[in-house]
TrEMBL record:
Highest taxon of the lineage: Bacteria
Annotated protein name in UniProt: Glycosyl transferase family 2
Homology family: Belongs to the glycosyltransferase 2 family. WaaE/KdtX subfamily.
Record bears the keyword Flavoprotein: no
Keywords: Transferase
InterPro entries (UniProt xref): Glyco_trans_2-like, Nucleotide-diphossugar_trans
Domain Glycosyltransferase 2-like positions: 8-122
One protein family per Pfam: Glycos_transf_2
GO molecular function annotation: transferase activity
Organism name: Candidatus Kentrum sp. FW
Amino acid sequence: MKTAIGLCMVVKNEINRITECIEPIFDLLDRIVIVDDGSTDGTPELLRRRFGIAVVRKETGRENWLCDLRNMAFDMTDTPWILTLDADERIAPETLERFSHASHELDVDGYFGPWVNHTGDESFED
């Protein structure tokens, strides 16, 4: 049994990163909610054209904008599980697929995987 997974993202001027983030996992997601904080580089248009995603545009102009916008995206997502990513983060499709089939068996409220940082030729886990 597959559990539905939604993706929530907050973006601003991520046209050079967003496709590489979403494309590998696009078909594994049941809902995608992206809130844009005033991109001027065509990010919302790219998402609409390439993936059919209707981006919500909301500029806060406030200091705690990320929390506000991420919470807005959460409120618009109706899936049992929500994945949050920044445009420069990646999740392996096989990891997401494995999770979607096993998550209904888990008696947990959240899941956090390892982060691997890549800097030049070096990689390290956080």
